[in-house]
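Help needed: design a sequence for this.
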């Protein structure tokens, strides 16, 4: 059984080597992205796809808990930011698809833009194994 598994792994790696040696630049896999109702979870608080915030609150009885919705003043997203714009979220920070950071001052005082995330210039050259071999011929 282990020999068969080793064989399949070896064949898979060999196929990748052959694909890259003939000039393939990208290997992709298909997957299904789950579209649930929860976008993020942080410190006992969830951000739902409809933009509402819910937090876990200890119940009146021992060993019980319940979900409570944050008030409208606390549960709002920054102006101009929709759920689809969020790449990273925790209760006090948001990073958007436009690479803009947002910071919540405290629990209910609104959001402040931190501006775009600084990115240093990086020189990137796309090279395939075929191009590397060709440069040494």
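Sure. Designed sequence:
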């Amino acid at each position: 059984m282990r020999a068969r598994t080793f064989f399949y792994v070896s064949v898979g790696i060999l196929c990748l080597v052959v694909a890259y040696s003939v000039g393939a630049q990208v290997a992709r896999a298909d997957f299904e992205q789950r579209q649930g109702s929860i976008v993020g979870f942080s410190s006992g608080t969830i951000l739902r796809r409809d933009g509402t915030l819910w937090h876990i609150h200890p119940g009146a009885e021992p060993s019980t808990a319940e979900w409570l919705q944050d008030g409208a003043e606390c549960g709002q997203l920054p102006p101009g930011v929709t759920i689809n714009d969020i790449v990273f979220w925790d209760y006090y920070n948001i990073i958007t698809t436009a690479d803009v950071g947002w910071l919540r001052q405290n629990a209910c005082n609104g959001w402040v833009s931190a501006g775009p995330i600084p990115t240093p210039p990086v020189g990137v050259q796309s090279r395939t194994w075929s191009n590397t071999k060709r440069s040494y011929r």
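The beta strands are 38-42, 45-48, 53-58, 65-69, 86-90, 93-96, 100-104, 111-116.
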